[in-house]
Amino acid sequence: MSGAEPSANRKDNRPYLNIEGLTKKFGEFVALQDISLDVHESEFVCFLGPSGCGKTTLLRCIAGLDIQTSGRIIQGGEDVSTLPPTARDFGIVFQSYALFPNLTVHKNLAYGLENRRINKEAIAKRVEELLELVGLTGQDTKYPAQLSGGQQQRVALARALATSPGLLLLDEPLSALDAKVRVHLRHEVKALQRRLGVTTIMVTHDQEEALTMADRIVVMDQGVIGQVGTPVEIYRDPASPFVADFVGTMNFLPGAVIAPQRLHLGRVELHCTNGFDGLEPGKVVTLCIRPEDLVVRDSGCEAPNSAIACVNALEFLGAFYRATLDVDGVDDQPLVVDLPPKLIGELDIRVGLEVTVVFPEDRIRVFATS
Amino acid sequence: MAEITAIPAPLRPALSRDDRIQGGGLVILAIALSAAIFLPLYAMLSRSFEDADGNFIGFANYIEYFGTPTLVSSAQHTITIGVVTTVIVVTLAFIYAYALTRSCMPFKGLFRAIAIIPILAPSLLPAISLVYLFGNQGMIKEVLLGHSIYGPIGIVIALAFWIFPHTVLILTTALSTADARLYEVAIALRTSKLRTFFTITLPGAKYGVMSACFVAFTYAITDFGAPKVIGGWYNVLSVDIYKQVVGQWNFQMGAVVSIILLFPVLLSFIADRLVQRRQVAQISAQSVPLVPTPNRRFDLIMLAYCLVIAFILIGLLAVSAYASLIKFWPYNLSLTLDNYQFDLMDGGGWEAYRNSIVMAVWTAVLGTLIIFTGAYLIEKSQRYANFRSSLQFIAIVPLAVPGMVLGLAYIFFFNPLTFTIPFTGIELANPFNFLYATMGILVICTIVHYYTVPHLTALTALKQMDSEFETVSASLKVPFYKTFARVTFPVCLPAILEISFYLFVNAMTTVSAVVFLWGPNTHLASVAVLNMDDQGDIAPAAAMAMMIVYTSAAVRIAYTMLTRGLQRRTQAWRQRESVAEPVLNPNP
């Protein structure tokens, strides 16, 4: 695989797709509120969010299937804001595949080519190329119903790529597949996208899919963008409690500001390297930390940035254990910690045991409590 | 100077070529449907407020109507016939459909086919058969214990026969969509069979039963053939319209009676719509289809019941078939084909039969084309959402207009050489007058009369297609009409054949819509049956009715074979069973 980094393909700083102040209303309901976003050439961007957050509406606006109420969309330097889908340059893949059932794989792939005054041999050659690209060589005479779900999705992908569009839109493309096939196809789609360098936007509600496939993730909530960033940024450095909660598992604990970089949690004082701008001393805040970032020690040991806690429940999840702890002085908000099986044995961790839990100072995020 | 912050107007989407073509198609459809439904109805409504010379006289005609006891009594008769027929036919059909869906009796396919038989015949046919069985010289008239078949008894039996298939079809569908797990729970909770029936089966089929009732009621009160042949002195509204117009040339009163008949039909139509709106999907994706378990006693009872019904259905048909071959009932029982010498009788002769075929073919071909394309534009166009939903409403309206009313309305609309624009007094030459008494008007009227059911069939088929086909085509820059021709049409072919068959058979058998519209050169077979019966040539009437049945049956067989052949040819892409994922390469 030629591991061409997307950033290396950028010819200049002008984005390929430029969305400016886009708002979409359905009657009184505001589906998208003042969305602005740039997508660069060859980039793989994921729109991630719960159902009803507006991610599909945004994709449909980009495709011209819904026309926004206000705002502009500029694609490849051209203002396409009000153009119908037929006048825009994109290929699209749906969750349902939408393969034409009465046409063979070959005819499905040739469907968009036949309309472009290309001669038959060139079409046949291109179809062969596409079949090879998605690993379906020799399946060209089959009908969609004779293929598995994963194979159908690959045909749909190949069909969307057949006319070499500048923009590939994927609407929950893997959601209808079995878990194993889904994981497998994730890699394939991503590898294919890198190889072709086609600018791609994928809509998904599956955070794992977004984290593994995207160059950048756009987290959306109730019609607005919550955060834009690389998968690592989104996971490590969520911009809001919503993003923190939606991507991965997160502990939310009640705290109070003492001074910059210092806060109260229950009976203990914690230090954290992330500053909390604009939060005055005494202010009630929400402390966020991921279960895998917490460290559990013997109850006796003296560690900085730690608290005493009691094991309330222990759940076996295969690769690790998930423990629920009651932190001393923090009522009604149990702390979830992920522990390797080895540690369980070493410390003889069981329900009712008292332990010390360490909060690494660079892993704590603090948000104002709304 | 006050500053005004400009609120930007919502963006106006640029229309693509596809959008413009679809919009044009929708406008044409809207104009055609409005012209073919609303303008004639308006012409009729305004006529009911005029005297014979065309002067506006307000409600005078209505006052005259309600002052004439014989006319008012037929309104009561019509409702009585409607209610009694509905109760009888829905009960009989429910048990029959229950046997077809919930028992393990043998020959279900055969019984299903037999239940459809009456659809192939005009409603005149069961009435003629009843005359042969129970009439003044009937084969077994003693069975009636001195009651006369001419009147409500005959009308109800003939209508029950003729409406039976429609209700069985609705109820079979309603009863075949049940979730097996509800019944398993009932068994686990040790619920009695009877309680299970009343708490699970009946509520599950509730909307189907209601729908069947509305259909049966509407058909019963609007039918013209059965009461015309066997009604005797028992006058009903549809026959009144005919008598007023054809017998007495009293067009205004015909219009008044039509409006009166329109009311119960409209009420039934609105009730049906309301019920269907409340209907929610009973079956979810997780439902397990119910498979009946054998129960010897129950299965035998059901088999016996279906045998009795099948005997009656086939029997009534056989009586007409037999009677049409008899020389002179009941005096000379030797067999003959003389009754099929239609050219020797009044009523239009073999020409009428040929006309009927021509009319049915045109109706099937043009009707299917218009209705399916119309349904496609309404369902699959990307823009004009409000316009499309109002067109959707217009497409449902014909269901609420009885054939007699539509036929009469067509006379009022197409016959005048000029028409006057309301409130202006401006007279214009009627541009549609050239259609009067032609094959064209018969075809248009029949298509409009039967528009709704095929429209809904087409809509159902189109809704089952992935709504993203159009989007994908647009992204591939393929015009929508190419996708329509290459994908939509082939995939919907079974539904299209069904629509053609439906239109053909109804065009062959209909009397009500066309009885006012045929001309000297456009005699029709079904009208010939009516006229020959009217003149006492009952055996030739039976013979012509049988010709209609034979033709419809032949088309039905052709349709079945076509559908089977199509299924075989398209098996490769229609198969539904899932294909296993190939073994995955762990390192792509």
What would you note in describing this structure?
The complex is a heterodimer of chains A (370) and B (588). With 370 residues, chain A is an alpha+beta fold. Chain A is built from 10 helices and 20 strands. Chain A has helices at 6-9, 55-63, 105-110, 120-133, 149-161, 179-196, 207-213, 231-236, 241-246, 341-347; strands at 17-26, 29-39, 44-48, 70-75, 78-79, 91-94, 167-171, 199-204, 216-221, 224-229, 251-259, 262-265, 268-271, 284-289, 295-298, 306-316, 321-327, 335-339, 354-358, 365-368. The longest helix of chain A has 18 residues, at 179-196. Chain A is elongated. The relative contact order of chain A is 0.11. The model of chain A is unreliable at 1-11 (pLDDT under 50). Chain B is mostly helical and 588 residues long. Chain B has 24 helices and 4 strands. Chain B has helices at 17-47, 60-66, 69-102, 108-116, 124-134, 152-176, 180-188, 193-204, 206-222, 225-230, 237-247, 251-278, 296-323, 349-380, 385-396, 403-414, 439-449, 452-463, 469-475, 480-491, 493-509, 525-534, 538-569, 571-574; strands spanning 326-328, 332-335, 418-420, 427-429. In chain B, the strands form 2 sheets. A two-stranded antiparallel ribbon of chain B has the order 1-2. In chain B, strands 3-4 form a two-stranded antiparallel ribbon. In chain B, strand 3 (418-420) and strand 4 form a beta hairpin. Chain B starts with 16 loop residues before the first helix and ends in a 14-residue tail after the last helix. The chains are: A alpha+beta (370), B mainly alpha (588). Chains A and B meet through strand 6, helix 5 and helix 6 of A and helix 1, helix 19, helix 20 and helix 24 of B.
